[in-house]
Design a protein that fits this description.
Protein name: DUF2254 family protein
Pfam families: DUF2254
Largest sheet: 5 strands, mixed
Keywords: Membrane, Transmembrane, Transmembrane helix
Organism: Rhodococcus jostii
Number of domains: 3
Radius of gyration: 28 Å
Distance between the termini: 63 Å
Strand order of the largest sheet: 1-5-3-8-7
InterPro entries: DUF2254_membrane (IPR018723)
Structural class: alpha+beta
Length: about 325
């Protein structure tokens, strides 16, 4: 029964992702677990037939049966989790990337990139030397401590949530020449998928994805898109009255040591509305709801934050299908 259900996993991966994806089929866990299940079945069947013909049996037989039962259940659980992982996009892409990197390393070898010294105003630059992934967190206290020890100023060149590829510049260092670039790179938490821990744009990205999928011709669910717009309409007021330029990190002595690259107000507004507005050109219900949300935010935002919202409001009125009363 377990392996019959697992065939559906392979079919799902072939139809949803690509028919050339065979990672789950070729995984040793699948075939080793089949051997464990088969061995346990043979042992239990044989022991049951033999025990029925004996007045007394060694205690090792039921003990072995119990142990094998626990092992089989554990392996079945691991196999299920592995199957669930294989139908998720991010782990699948990570596995494919790892396989490709292994092949390239075998053919051409590896030579990790290090830090570069440049004579420009940005000082030295530090390049990412690990495998590709998403920047999920920055250990700011540790990075500030390292910058203080080296007496330098570190300026992040990437944001939390950005994709890092080997060799890309992640930070520039102003000041003394003697700093440990490897230790600084160790302050970056890079994973296969984004995380909410320090990524302020992730919630907007997820909401956009939900809305765009709902607005696609294949789904055509404008009510879901409207609900997604309500979400960004709730998120933006949380920061509309707050300073967003808070990327300066000082050490324990109060001296500036790290400058973190953060989104500005226009970045947040763009992430909240631009893609949804473009997809809702011919969806009057969604466009009307979008316009109402933007206009409501304009009324509550401070004066210096209203211009970015007003530009989006004007764009929706000019390009989206709206009733005449909403165009004025």
């Amino acid at each position: 029964m377990v392996f019959s259900l697992l065939f559906l996993v392979g079919q799902f991966g072939a139809t949803t992702l690509t028919p050339r994806l065979t990672l789950f089929r070729d995984d040793p866990l699948v075939w080793n677990s089949f051997g464990i299940f088969l061995g346990f079945f043979v042992f239990a069947t044989t022991a049951g037939l033999v025990v029925n013909q004996k007045d007394a049996v060694p205690v090792a037989i039921p003990v072995a049966a119990v142990i094998l039962t626990v092992v089989a259940l554990a392996v079945m659980r691991i196999l299920q989790l592995h199957a669930f992982r294989s139908i998720q996009l991010a782990p699948t892409l990570a596995d494919v990337t790892a396989r490709g990197e292994a092949v390239l390393a075998t053919l051409y070898g590896t030579e990790p990139a290090g830090s570069e010294r440049s004579g420009g105003p940005g000082g030295a630059v530090v390049r990412w030397t690990g495998t590709g992934g998403m920047l999920c967190q920055i250990d700011l206290p540790k990075l500030a401590h390292l910058a203080r020890e080296a007496d330098v100023l570190v300026r992040m060149r990437v944001r939390v949530g950005d994709a890092l590829i080997p060799g890309s510049v992640v930070m520039s260092v102003d000041g003394a020449a003697g700093f440990d670039s490897r230790a600084m790179l160790g302050c970056l938490d890079v994973r296969i998928d984004r995380s909410f821990d320090q990524d302020p744009m992730l919630a907007f990205r997820i909401v956009d994805d939900i809305a765009l999928r709902a607005l696609s011709p294949a789904v055509n669910d404008p009510a879901t898109a409207a609900q997604a717009i309500d979400c960004v309409g709730t998120l933006l007021p949380r920061i509309s009255h707050r300073p967003v330029d808070v990327g300066d990190v000082a050490d324990t002595e109060g001296e500036l040591r790290v400058v973190v690259l953060l989104p500005d107000w226009d970045d947040y507004v763009s992430a909240a509305f631009d893609e949804i507005a473009d997809a809702a050109r011919h969806q009057p219900f969604v466009a009307r709801h979008l316009l109402q949300t933007i206009d409501s935010l304009i009324g509550s935002a401070p004066a210096h934050r209203q211009s970015a919202l007003e530009r989006r409001s004007a764009w929706v009125r000019a390009h989206c299908d709206l009733p005449p009363t909403f165009r004025s």
